[in-house]
Amino acid sequence: MKLTTVILAAGKGTRMRSAMPKILHKIANRSLLEHVYDMSRELDNNEIKIIYGHGGNQVLETLKHLEAEWTEQKEQLGTGHAVQQVQSQIADDAIVLILYGDVPLLKLNTVQKLLEGAKESLSLLTVTLANPSGYGRIVRNEQNKVVKIVEEKDADVSQKMINEVNTGILAVRGGLLKTWLSRLENNNAQKEYYLTDVIEMAVNDGFEIVTSQPASEDEVLGVNNRMQLAHLERVYQKEQAEKMMAEGVTLADPARFEVRGYVDKLGIDIEIDINVILEGAISIGNNVKIGANSIIKNAVIHDDVEILPNCIIEDAEVGRGSRVGPFARLRPQALLADNVHIGNFVEIKKSKIATGSKVNHLSYIGDSVIGSHVNIGAGTITCNYDGVNKFQTIIGDNAFIGSNSQLVAPVSIGNNATIGAGSTITKDTPDGQLTLARAKQISIASWQRPVKKEK
Ligand code: UD1
Ligand code: CA
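^ thats the input. predicted complex w/ uridine-diphosphate-N-acetylglucosamine below
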């Protein structure tokens, strides 16, 4: 079955009160339109067409990488008019699926069910709402068959009492849709070309409308203002949290945990404390503990790792059995091997740290290669930057760097070397020796402490 998905995304979104087009607003750090796109991509043999309009340049600039055909609707004259923009590109034998760019949480299985109904007729996704106001109402006859959709603004008092509403999402064969689209008129309350008018045309042409419903009404809720955006963010996050718990993750509080990306690999017996944010592509092994208020982005965390509270980890890898934090920052290309300890107020950037090494307090390690079982004392700094270029620091296995040392790169510290506390090391140091680079300590016996002068 050949499928053409048309995503309507030209509307203005006035009630967002935003300089940014509505469909670029985000849920879980991904635009509304991309949520719709991602779901559509799961459908087989599908070509995606996006109707854009309002804020067109900004939309294209942000999303032109999507594999879709973009068509501009210069004036927004209604949902029917929007689909008319691409009707010449639609094959007669294709099934056309209409989606809205501002309805982000629609589920694949709901759409698959809808598409089943489109093989023979026009298939419509409807939902029954306690408060249907604002929506087009589904009008049925005595045999309970759909006869038409009436927009709220065109509805009479009794039609306004109908609780079954149009989600706007429908599917139908291309050839049929095109015939009906060519007959649309705008003689209605809003002077718009309503896509919903094709329902009555289909009925008049002898088709029985097939209807289906989503599992939850949240699937078909659109975003018109920032309250609705926040509501759908919560719905989305609750789903992610439940999915993770079902896979063996303990969440201290599912309402205070956010996933803003993709969890590629997830082990079991992971414990995640409150206010943790997982962003981008994440992989977490078994038996991992993540402390409160940590942000982990594009990272690989291996088995038995403990991340203490308030850590920020980005584009980094943490080896099995390692311990990080509290208050540590792993920046891009921080690669920790097994059983590494990174303590509080330590920043690691573009550095490899081999098995069993420790950087426990207040250090900056950048552009470094650190061997195994190295101990880096408190306050050690790799001076990797001369203001223009970056240089590398290499530290051999079993080295011991005394506290408050500065290692001025490029520099290399030998295996089993010891650096005396407070040293500023500017030259390579040999294996196995103690190297000191600091002023000699003196005491002055005759020294008198100054006394306050009489005025
Ligand atoms: C539409 C339906 C209504 C349904 C409701 C569900 C029509 C006539 N009415 O109403 O029955 O209950 O959706 O939310 O179809 N758009 C364009 N170009 C346009 C107009 C709209 O791309 O010229 C896009 C919007 O960006 C939006 C979608 O189509 O994504 C729906 O438009 P909107 O104005 O929200 O439709 P409603 O009047 O709410
Ligand atoms: Ca709407």
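The helical segments are 32-41, 56-63, 79-84, 108-117, 157-160, 174-181, 197-204, 226-246.
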